[in-house]
Amino acid sequence: MPDRSKCLSQWREGRTELENEVIDQLLTGRLDRRSFLRHGSRVGLSLALMGGVLQGLGLAPIGRAFAQAKQGGTIRLAQITPSGAIEPVSVADQGGLLPLQQAGDFLVMDGPDLVLRPMLATSWKPNEDGSVWTFTLRDGVKFHDGRVMTADDVVASIDRLADPANGSNALSAFKGVLSKGGTTKVDDKTVRFSLDAPNGNFPYYVSSDNYNAIILPADYKGDFEKTFNGTGPFRMVSYTPKVGASFVRNPDYWAGPALAEKLELSFYADQQPQVLALLGGQVDMIQQVVVQGSQSLFDNPAVKILRLKSNAHRQIHMKNTGPFADKRVRQAMALTLDRPAIVKGLFRGMADLGNDSPFAPVFPSTDTTIPQRGKDIAKAKELMAAAGMSGGFDVTLTTMQLQELPAIASLIRNAAAEIGVKVTLKLEDVGAYYGDAVPGKSDWLDSQFGITDYGHRGTPNVFLAAPLLSTGTWNSAEFKNPGYDKLVASYIAALDPAAQKAQAGAIQKLLLDETPIIFPYFYDYLTATSATLQGVEGTAMGQMFLHKAGFA
Amino acid sequence: MSEGMPLADPAVPMAAAPAGREEKGRGVAGLLLRSPAFLLGAAILLFWTACALFAPSFVPYDPFADDLLNTLQPPSAEHWFGTDQLGRDVFSRVLVGARDILTIAPLATIVGTVAGTAIGLITGYFGGWVDAVIGRLLEVMLSLPLIIVALLVLVALGPSTPTVVVVVGLVFAPLVARTVRAAVLTERHLDYVAAAAVRGEGAPYIMIAEILPNILPPIIVEGTVRLGYAIFTIASLSFLGFGVQPPSPDWGLSIAENYGVLVGGFWWTVVFDTAATASLIVGVNLVAESLQRALAE
């Protein structure tokens, strides 16, 4: 064991109180190695310092060792067809965000391990209460057209997303966090974000998690598809909407040129042809595979599955009307599901159990001491009887034709039948389910009982707000609980990890008791590559960082 | 106007026609019973009808019961046709799966045949501008692919069993109408029609009581042919997610739910439903063809 007190004073020197708090929590064992890295990167501790601290404590250092791949070659990537234009402001789907991120960079990268890493910003610091964050930018970053990136470009890029007039997809994240005009230039290499309210997780909002937030030139005219002009590791050579795009490596990339010489993206409408293309050697990797339908890849020695823990999930909402107005009925419904069997049977174990709150095990702030809800038909029947519903009731479950959703709907129907609830299924195509996404014109928001899919996020903030706050715009359950609203506000404002965890625990308990929404599982993000492709770093958002990817 | 029509005795043609039909009916039945194709088709139909009616009481497993710890098991002594993605017994599901299609397809065929016959009678009987206007409208409908029209309507109205029945019935109506109109055109100039008109019967009476009985054979044949197509169309709609709703073991729906895992080698989740659909369509077509031949002879 090294001389801890000597190290301690070294590490503490020049650190803010918040940063020292994170270090202290590691020292006292309240944070494990992984949580330390996540929280440390969030409050702005450099990776070098965190590496030193870990080494000093005899813990595993940072970063996974990749076998060095060879220079050159073409990476052929299969992905789902982008649903609209590749336009940084409006992209809202997994198909669109991948091409975007090959040509553009974020201020911060939220890596596969949810540890924030410097990208176009080299460091970041909050003020005392987390309401103002200051980011220092990297020197010598060039756009593909040769111009040097400055603070003006960053201010313009983020302001463009925060401006309601542009209708950006990032508004769902920035609402109540960062408004137009909140981003200001301090000097050419420093940008300051003055937030609407204190936010301990702000660096995630300008990281790759907010996939719209790639930095573009200040004079960007909305014509990204023509040039793909960003600062990213690959430059666009050609792009054909609905077909694909090809790129060459950017020789001037700030982190050095990528290993692979070329990158080709092919767009597919469906998973099956992608699986066949990988098996047939026409592509080297598939952005995302879901367990259902890609079974042939899992036991195949020519294929590698990159498995990322994620918080992507399905929400089963129960609207606060009719029989569901009684929380005992909602609890009873949640008690009918055999979650471990679902994870094993439908996901081959590649999912985490949900505990009826958005706090997935993958979030560092999740309180893992809250008891897991399991299947308990006897208790469910008791609750139904106490609610005067022992005779059961009829209800329609509305959801989409998407991946495993029809299967889950069938399972819910069978499970509910065990407590006398007769569930009729109504499956629609995705467009019909979401409708106009406003109450009165959307089965998603209007249905009494429905299943909705939610993609992975860096923090649980959006999951906590939109579907559950009294003012939430996606509140299908019509859940209105002032106590909950207050807890969420203090969770979002909490800066230090202990405070975040305490608030998270309180929220988890409240949601477990109220059960407006069943969160049955959080499924892993799976990427398939050929066995010879190395160095691919994905995120559970669907981004594929290929700068260090190449063939063995 | 034909000459020599026994105007004074309106009962003559009316009495003669049924007698002729009865005789012909006995002949048709004899021909059919001697036709191996008909017997095979009828046997297949009977088998699936029996399954639809009684399978739920004799299948080895509850076709809806999931078993998540035994998903995608290959065919075995325990599960003859294996299990699907939710661990449900495919054998039980295939047998019970006949129920939805054999309810919806005949209902849709009846809707289509009744509507088509009505339209065909009106256009064929009245002719002139009525025929021209309705005829053009029908041609417009026929120029669009059936499945696309059905999909459009189902997207607009939302999928449900009654909607599927009505939609498939209505997209088939123009096809039936075309056949019926042609048959009416050959009948309307015959003497018994003129006689009825002279007797002062109204158009509806002439169409329904006079012409319709005489054009029943082509309508029956058309109806059986449509039944085959209805099975096919409904299975396609279910496959596309616009037909029968889960967790029904309906064949088209089961194929849709499971075809994604085919690449993984789990053929049993799809093959048996496909074979069942194919056998039912072949059965109906054998019956239809035999009927057509027998009625033509």
TrEMBL record, chain A:
Major localisation:
periplasm
Report the superkingdom from the record.
Bacteria
> Keywords in UniProt for this one?
Signal, Transport
InterPro entries assigned to the protein according to its UniProt record, in alphabetical order:
Peptide/Ni-bd, SBP_5, SBP_5_CS, SBP_5_dom, TAT_signal
Which parts of the sequence belong to the Solute-binding protein family domain? 116-437
List, alphabetically, the PROSITE patterns matched: SBP_BACTERIAL_5, TAT
Subcellular location field: Periplasm
State the family it belongs to: Belongs to the bacterial solute-binding protein 5 family.
**Protein name per UniProt:** ABC transporter substrate-binding protein
Could you tell me which species this protein originates from?
A: Ancylobacter oerskovii
